[in-house]
Amino acid sequence: MSNNPYQPQRIAISNINTGDQCQEIADKPENVDTDSWPGSCAEVSEDPFSGADAISSTISDGKIGFMHLLGRRLGNTPLIEVIPDQTIIDTQIAQSSTENGISYPGCYGLAAGTRNGGAAHYHSCDSGELGNNSNDCYISRWGWIGDRASLEDQIANAANVEMNLRSKESYKEVHPNASSIHQLVRYKKTLCGPANESCQNSEANSDITEQEIKDMATYQRWIGIPQRSEYQVSSEIVQQGEKIFKDLQCNSCHVISKIAYINDDNMLPDEERAHLQKLQILSGDQTDYPFISYLGTDLLLHDMGYLSQIAKAPEGQNIRNNDGTVKDEYKSYVQHIRTPALKGLRFNRFVTDSNHNTEEAGGDLTKKNFLPGCDFLLHDGRACDAIEAAYLHDGPAIKQLG
């Protein structure tokens, strides 16, 4: 085994080609300054990206930062919806407690969004705060960078960004007075930059309705919740592993404790709230709530050190302080990452089909000694198994815990 320290591996951009679709520049919005709005199609096409290597450049030079993100298993969806907002907030508070020995807790993202789909439960996040007013934000729960509040919002965004599918009627319902592109959770135009007028006026691949968004959410919601194997978790080696997991305080972020379902403080659709309400057992002054456990996430965003870095530091510069925190002038070089759920991790390789990505040991096909396929863990898939993923964790909290 090599004693050489791990060298962070990064992927460099060799070329970006945006094509020549731009024929006309859109009018500059009132809230955008002139210097940042392109004056010609040449400025939104290939030229500004020529040689823009995100790993050898700096954001201050106008170059690009980027992060590779891997798709995740869908089976934990309803459990993520059930977690009460207050539990997420309490976990964030607990992480900053001196009793835990961590001074660098995760943060919960705030986002515009819908609960239940449609305009009835839409929050614009104009206030920028979490609360009970009509414009107040939701806590974001979805995406590696925690930018979507509900499952319906995540689906509508993925349809637009990944498949160029718009939702024009939903846009009219949810955003009747949309004034900022940063607030959108439904989309009326094809997938383009805002200045590319000709592309904006072109047709998307298709149009989806709000009901279709809800139907896809229902499918994803009940695609299957992974359960623990009672036979495996009762074994001595697994029990010892859980003890180590807790001793190392991995459960500070990958929360495995019992979380009670609270009917009015989560992102479940109305019909699912009503269903779970019926499961509550009232006995005197006590209420027995349904609960989840061993989900393995705090749904918070964390600075994961070099794993969170989206652009290389300028030559001879270190973007971090000695304790691992980012220097103020380099905040934009780092993207915080949401903690993924661990529940059902043993199914990961079958979902990703990586169980077929194996190598036969010894070259003898009669001996079924195969090295397991890579599970492609962490946000960019660089870790092949849970042990490797654990060792690659980085950031100020990890450094503080030693």
How does this structure look, described?
The chain is of the alpha+beta class and 402 residues long. It has a domain at 348-401. The chain has 12 helices and 14 strands. It has helices at 77-82, 85-95, 151-163, 168-174, 197-200, 210-221, 230-233, 236-247, 270-279, 348-351, 386-391, 396-401; strands at 110-111, 113-114, 122-123, 138-139, 165-166, 206-207, 259-260, 281-283, 286-288, 291-292, 301-302, 337-338, 359-360, 370-371. It has a two-stranded antiparallel sheet with strand order 1-4. A two-stranded antiparallel sheet has the order 2-3. Helix 3 crosses helix 6. The longest helix has 13 residues, at 151-163. It starts with 76 loop residues before the first helix and ends with a helix. 28% of the residues are buried. The model is unreliable at 50-62 (pLDDT under 50).
Q: Top keywords for this entry?
A:
402 residues; alpha+beta; two-stranded antiparallel sheet; globular
